[in-house]
Automatic annotation (TrEMBL), chain B:
This is Aspartate carbamoyltransferase. GO terms for molecular function: aspartate carbamoyltransferase activity. Heterododecamer (2C3:3R2) of six catalytic PyrB chains organized as two trimers (C3), and six regulatory PyrI chains organized as three dimers (R2). The lineage of its organism: Bacteria, Pseudomonadati, Nitrospirota, Nitrospiria, Nitrospirales. Pfam families: OTCace (PF00185), OTCace_N (PF02729).
C-alpha cells in the first residue's frame, strides 16, 4: 500500500475559509441557513464551517448531524450493516437553506441517502452541497456547490480525510494499492 | 451477529451492547413527525404466534412497519395448523413466500431453535414456553440504561414467579452479562432450582429483599400456569409479595419500577406503585419498539446473501 499526504493542516484551513466565504456570498449572508454534517467527518467539517462563518459574519449558524445508515441503498450488498450513529437535528429544517456537508464526494450515493433522510425531517427551501474533496466517479446526477479541492482519482485509489477531532492532525491522504503502482 | 435471536443465554455480550446502542438511534426515529425509515424496504416478516399476545405482537408488527418491512400475521386458530399441519410444513409453506424474518411465539420451549435449523429466514424468539423472551430482556436493559446511565454495578431485584417466567430468565442472563447485581425475591415454590448460580442473592421476604435496590422488576403472576398450588390465593399473594408503596419505601429513593405487562393490579403490584413517579412501565413499551427495530436491522445483515 502506498500512502501520500496530499493536503496538510494549513491547506485544509485555507480551503474551509474560502468555502465559508462562498457560502456567505451565495446566500447573501447567512439568514435562514443551517449546516448539516454527515457522520462522521462531515459533522466535524460542518462545525468548522459554522465557526468560520461566525468569525466572518458574527452570526452563529446551527449545526445538525445526520446518520444515513437507515437510508443507504447498499444494505443488501454489505457484509455488515453500518454502525448507526446519532442523528441530532436540533432545528426545524422546513423552509431553511440547508448546507449539506461531507468530507469526500465520490459516487454521490451517500448524498442521495442524506437527502432522503433530510426529507423525513421536513421540506427545506434548498439543499446546497459542500464537500472538502471531490474525487470524481459520480454514479448519480449530484454536484457540489462548494468544493475544497477537486482531486481526480482512479477507482483503485482511496482518499482519506483525517481530522484533529479523531486523529493526530488534519490531513488528506491518497492511498493506493501496491499492485496498481 | 448470528442470523437469529433465539435466546440471551447464548448471546454474546458485545452483540447485546450493539443492539442497545443501535436501539437508541431508532428511538430518535420514533420521536420524529415521520416515524418510518426505508431501511428494510422489500423485506417480509411473518409474525407467527401460537400463544395469545397483544403487546409483543403489536410491538413487533409496528417495529416491522416502521422499518418499511411487509408484514404477514399468521393467526394460528384460523390457520392450517388447526387442520393438523406439522410445524415443519407450516414453516416450509411460509418460507415459500420468500420470507426474511420469522417472529415466533410458542407454548413449547425450544421451538424457535427448531425453526432456525430448518429455515433460512432470521428467526426471532418472541417467547417460547418457560424458556426465554429475549427481546423483553433487551428492552428492559435498554430502559434501565436509559434511566440510570449504566447497568454494571446496579442492584436489581426481580420479584415474583421466577419459575414460570421466561421474562425473568432472559433478564437474569442479560443483566448478568451486563454486570448487574441480581436479587431474586419470591416464595420458595416459585424459584427454579439451579438459578442460584446466575444471581447474587435470593430473598424469601420482600421487605428485606427490596432494601437499597436501584431497580425492581415485578413479574406477572401467570394464573394460567398456577395449577400446581404454588401459593394459596392471589389475595394472599398480594399480602405477602405484592409491591406496595410502603414496601417500595425500603428501596433507594430513585428506584425505578418495571413490569413486562400485562399487569395484574392488586396481585403483584399495587395501583399506587404502577402509577407512581417511580414507574417506567409505559416507557418500557415505547422502548420495546426501538429495541425490536434494532434487532430486525442487525439480524438482516447477518443472513447469508443470495
Amino acid at each position: 500500500m502506498l500512502t501520500r499526504e496530499l493536503l496538510n493542516e494549513s491547506d485544509i484551513a485555507r480551503m474551509l475559509s474560502r468555502m465559508a466565504h462562498e457560502i456567505i456570498e451565495r446566500n447573501e449572508g447567512c439568514e435562514n441557513v443551517c449546516i448539516v454534517g454527515i457522520h462522521r467527518a462531515g459533522v466535524y467539517i460542518a462545525r468548522r464551517l459554522s465557526e468560520k462563518i461566525r468569525l466572518i459574519e458574527g452570526v452563529t449558524i446551527a449545526v445538525a448531524s445526520l446518520d444515513i445508515s437507515f437510508y443507504r441503498d447498499d444494505l443488501n450488498r454489505r457484509k455488515n450493516h453500518p454502525i448507526v450513529r446519532k442523528t441530532e437535528m436540533p432545528i426545524d429544517i422546513n423552509d431553511k437553506k440547508i448546507i449539506l456537508v461531507d468530507d469526500v464526494l465520490y459516487t454521490g450515493r451517500t448524498i442521495r441517502a442524506a437527502m432522503d433522510a433530510l426529507n423525513d425531517f421536513g421540506r427545506p427551501a434548498q439543499i446546497q452541497l459542500a464537500v472538502l474533496i471531490d474525487r470524481g466517479h459520480r454514479e448519480l446526477p449530484i454536484r457540489a456547490l462548494y468544493v475544497g479541492k477537486n482531486i481526480p482519482t482512479s477507482r483503485s485509489e482511496n482518499i482519506k480525510v483525517l481530522l484533529k477531532e479523531d486523529a493526530d492532525h488534519d490531513m488528506v491522504l491518497v492511498i493506493r494499492d501496491d499492485h496498481d503502482v | 451477529m448470528d442470523k437469529d435471536l433465539l435466546d440471551i443465554k447464548s448471546a454474546a455480550t458485545a452483540d447485546i451492547e450493539l443492539i442497545l446502542n443501535t436501539a437508541s438511534s431508532f428511538k430518535d426515529v420514533l420521536s420524529r413527525d415521520i416515524k418510518k425509515v426505508p431501511t428494510l424496504r422489500g423485506k417480509t416478516a411473518v409474525n407467527l404466534f401460537f400463544e395469545p399476545s397483544t403487546r409483543t405482537k403489536t410491538s413487533f408488527e409496528l417495529a416491522e412497519k416502521r422499518l418499511s418491512t411487509d408484514v404477514i400475521n399468521f393467526v394460528v386458530p384460523s390457520s392450517s395448523v388447526a387442520k393438523g399441519e406439522t410445524l415443519y410444513d407450516t414453516i416450509k409453506t411460509i418460507e415459500s413466500y420468500g420470507i426474511d424474518f420469522i417472529i415466533i411465539r410458542h407454548q413449547f420451549s425450544g421451538v424457535p431453535h427448531f425453526i432456525s435449523r430448518i429455515s433460512k429466514a432470521s428467526v426471532i424468539n418472541a417467547g417460547d414456553g418457560i424458556n426465554e423472551h429475549p427481546t423483553q430482556a433487551l428492552l428492559d436493559a435498554f430502559t434501565i440504561k436509559e434511566q440510570k446511565g449504566t447497568i454494571a454495578g446496579l442492584k436489581i431485584a426481580i420479584v415474583g414467579d421466577i419459575s414460570h417466567s421466561r421474562v425473568a430468565k432472559s433478564n437474569i442472563y442479560c443483566l448478568k452479562k451486563l454486570g448487574a447485581d441480581i436479587r431474586l425475591i419470591a416464595p420458595h415454590t416459585l424459584i427454579p432450582t439451579g438459578i442460584e448460580n446466575d444471581v447474587t442473592e435470593i430473598y424469601h421476604d420482600i421487605e428485606s429483599g427490596i432494601a437499597d435496590i436501584d431497580v425492581i422488576m415485578t413479574l406477572r403472576i401467570q394464573q394460567e400456569r398456577q395449577s400446581g398450588g404454588f401459593f394459596s390465593s392471589t389475595d394472599e399473594y398480594f399480602k405477602f409479595w405484592g409491591l406496595t408503596l410502603k414496601r417500595l419505601g425500603k428501596a433507594r429513593p430513585d428506584v425505578i419500577v418495571m413490569h413486562p405487562g400485562p399487569m395484574n393490579r392488586g396481585v403483584e403490584i399495587a395501583s399506587e406503585v404502577a402509577d407512581s413517579r417511580h414507574s417506567v412501565i409505559n416507557t418500557q413499551v415505547t422502548n420495546g419498539l426501538a429495541v425490536r427495530m434494532a434487532v430486525l436491522y442487525l439480524l438482516d445483515s447477518a443472513r447469508p446473501r443470495k
